[in-house]
Amino acid sequence: MTPEPRPQPQPQARPIRLGPRSVAALLLVGVIGLAALTWPFFSAPTSQVGAHAKDAPWLFAGLLVLLVGVVAATISESGLGPKAVAMLGVLAATGAALRPIGAGTAGIEPMFFLMVLSGRVLGPGFGFVLGSVTMFASALLTGGVGPWMPFQMLSMGWFTMGAGLLPGPDRLRGRGELAMLAAYGFLAAFAYGTFMNLAGWPFMDALSSNVAFDAHDPVHTNLARFTVYCVTTSLGWDLGRATVTVVLTLTLGTTVLKALRRATRRAAFETSVTFEEPGGAAPVTPPGGAR
After folding, report:
1. What are the CB-based long-range contacts (under 8 Å, 24+) for 139-145?
2. Which residue in 46, 47, 77, 181 has a CA-CA distance of 20 to 30 Å to 168?
3. For 219-275, how does the pLDDT look when each residue is reduced to its tens digit (9 = 90+)?
4. Please, what's the b/e burial string for 20-57 (b: 16 or more CB within 10 A of its CB; e: otherwise)?
5. What three-state secondary structure class fits 173?
6. Residue 275, SS3?
């Protein structure tokens, strides 16, 4: 008897790789973004930044939007073809549609779990662009356009990128992977809230609150005030966001991860394109291949 052929294992869904320019652009955006968020702790009371504090959100906003655009263009140059761009559009539209479901209701924001799972499957570079584009689209959808929007885009980009940097993308599966993603989503949801608090806290009126930023106080005093500010103003909201992310990841994570990985395998983002020569000659790969 002829033995039955063994079924061929399905290829693993590979994250979209980053080129050197994409990595450099992401690092540049990260450095500028951290400077935009943490400048109050390091600027002198007499510095020009402190003197023009009311203008700072708009100045940083314009700069960050431009840098995020540079990152998106660089990553697309590194290999995001039409299929990847189409998937980016679908996931961003889905995330933007999910955000208004719980808008204004105790941190019920289901879009965060989708960003975690998408970043896990598609990698950190794609994740950063997806997070930024999703937040931009949702801001247009909900009318939430303002000086805070670039910081939302940056924070969500980091949130989604971090999921793509988690260990074991090719080996870890099942409950262990879901537990890791749920733990990451829980902690990252608080980190997102902290970054957004940093974006607005320095511009509170110091005379109206004892937890406002004061440029004349030392760093440790302002850090203590900021901690109290986070606990008293946004802890409940951040806890709701973190809890919803964990619950949705544990309940829907397996199904969504399978769908994302199946779509990534079928799209074959990095499959080389070859052309058969007439007469059965060896296939010819275009110059530069498919990146």
Report:
1. 141/96, 141/97, 141/99, 141/100, 142/99, 142/100, 142/103
2. 77
3. 788 888 888 888 888 888 889 899 999 999 999 999 999 998 888 877 655 554 444
4. eebeebbeebbebbeebbebbeebeeeeebbeebeebb
5. coil
6. strand
Instruction: Enter the pTM of the model.
Output: 0.76
Contact 111, 134 (CB under 8 A): yes
Cβ–Cβ < 8 Å for 213, 204 = yes
146-188 pLDDT tens trace = 777 778 888 898 899 999 899 887 778 888 899 999 999 999 9
Angle of the 111-122 helix axis to the 149-164 helix axis, nearest 10: 50
Cα first-last separation, the chain: 45
Which amino acid appears at position 233 of this protein?
A: T
Structural element, H or E, at residue 282: strand 281-284
